[in-house]
Amino acid sequence: MKYSDIPGWFYPIDQAGFAWVLEFQNDTAPPGDLLELGAFQGKSAILMGQKLKPGERLTVCDLFEDVVTWDGANPVEKAFFGDKTPTRQAFEANYLTFHKALPVIVQGPTGDICRHVAPGSCRFVHIDASHVYANVREDTASARALLQDTGVVVFDDYRKPQCLGTAAAVWEAILNEGLQPVFATDAKLYATWGDPEPLRAAIIARARASDWCRTGDPVAIRDMQIVRLVRNGR
Ligand SMILES: C[S@@+](CC[C@H](N)C(=O)[O-])C[C@H]1O[C@@H](n2cnc3c(N)ncnc32)[C@H](O)[C@@H]1O
Fold first, then answer.
1. pTM (2 decimals)?
2. What whole-number distance in Å separates Cα of residue 122 and Cα of residue 117?
3. Which atom of ligand 1 is nearest to the CA of 130?
4. Domain limits of the chain?
C-alpha cells in the first residue's frame, strides 16, 4: 500500500505543515511526546510517527468503531463517515505498513485523554476528533494542559461551514485565552501558547525554498499575526 492510498483528509499542504513543524522542533526544542486526538485510518499519525526522536512517544486517541454509537457526536458528524466507519483494525494495519511498532492507542473519548498522558509532556498535539463545540473546547483545554511551553497545537476544520463549533472553540482560545496563531492552511490552523515568531519565520523560510507553495502576507489580529500557507496556483 502506498501512503497516498490511505483514506483520510490529510492533504499534501498539511503533510508539509506537520513535517516542517516537527522538524523545526527536532532542531530547536527539547524532546517531547506527540499526541493525536482523532486518528481514523492513520494518515496523519503515520507521518507524526516518522518524526519521533528516540525516547519520544506518539499516543493516538480514537473511539474507532464506537464512534457510531457515541452520544457526544452530532448527526452531521456521524453522517460524515458514511461508508468509511473508522476501525481500530484498519488503523493498526495501515500504521504497521509504515512502522515497525504501533503507537500507544487509547480507544475511548478524547475527553478522557488527561488520564493517559502526563501534563506538560507533549510538544505537538493534533486536534482532529469530534468537531462539536463542547468537545473541541474540552480537547483544547487538554492540549493546553498536556503541551510543553513551546508546544504546538493543530486544529482541523477550523473554518468549514459544517464545523462552526470548531471555529468558535478555536477563536475563543485565541481571543480570550492567550493562544497565538502561527499559520493556517485551508484545512488546519497551527497555534501555540508560547512564542509564535520563531516557528512562523521557519515556515515562511521553508515555503520560500519550495517550488510548490507559498505564504501570504501576515494578517494582523489584535496584536497577533497569522500567515496562510497555500499551494501555488491557488
Ligand atoms: C476526521 S477523522 C481523523 C482523521 C485523521 N486525523 C487523519 O488525518 O486521517 C476523526 C476521527 O475522530 C474520531 N472521533 C470523533 N469523535 C471522537 C471523540 N469524542 N473521541 C475520540 N475519537 C473521536 C472518529 O472515530 C474518527 O476516526
1. 0.97
2. 8
3. 16
4. 3-198
Residue 86 to residues 38, 129, 195, 213, 232: CA-CA distances in angstroms? Answer: 10, 11, 36, 31, 33
Amino acid 71: pLDDT: 78
Q: Which CATH architecture has domain 3-198?
A: 3-Layer(aba) Sandwich (3.40)
- The CA distance from 208 to 60, in Å, is 32
Indicate which residue's Cα is closest to atom 26 of ligand 1: 40
Q: How far is the CA of 220 from the centre of ligand 1 (A)?
A: 32
d(CA 184, CA 192): 12
CA 129 to centroid of ligand 1, rounded, Å = 4
Give the ligand 1 atom nearest the CA of 80.
Answer: 1
Whole-angstrom distance between the N-terminal and C-terminal Cα of the chain?
30
What percent of the chain is modeled with pLDDT above 90? 90
Per-residue pLDDT reduced to its tens digit, 16-54? 999 999 999 999 999 999 999 999 999 999 999 999 999
**Which protein residue's CA is at the shortest distance from atom 22 of ligand 1?**
62
Pocket of ligand 1 (CB under 6 A): 8-10, 38-41, 43-44, 61-64, 67, 72-73, 86, 109-110, 128-130, 135
